[in-house]
Amino acid sequence: MGAVRGPLGPDVAFLDAALALAFASAPVDPARIVLAGFSDGASAALTLGLANGDRFTHVAAFAPGFLTPLPPVGRPAIFVTHGTHDRVLPIDRCSRRVVPALRAAGYTVRYQEFDGGHIIAPRQLLAALGWLHGAAVRAGGLPGAEPPQHG
Description:
Blueprint: H1 10-25, E1 35-38, H2 40-51, E2 58-62, E3 77-83, H3 95-104, E4 109-114, H4 122-138
Parallel strand pairs: 1-2, 2-3, 3-4
């Protein structure tokens, strides 16, 4: 993405065009997909997820550093987790600023801090998967979870 060193640039336009093509080419249920990332990828997931909230109903961000403002579309649900001892993207300068800004903008954010560094902690990954599982159940079930049909 390059946003850590400067403006977002052509990557965002390319990814947006690729998303548009994918969603136009195949029947995709946005309630069954999530945009997720770690570190700079978490920042990109938040940025692109908010700009494509009509395509992604859920965004998971593990240790995001920032949020680049793009025109928002839709209102995806957001999961953010960050280690309190992160030395790469310090929590005070990152998630503790990003999360309140998201909430002030009206987004539903599930936020969890953990005692750790710049990692995806196993418990936080399980929490994110549980959050997504609950969303999938509320949206009408999980693929393959239907009882077998006997003929």
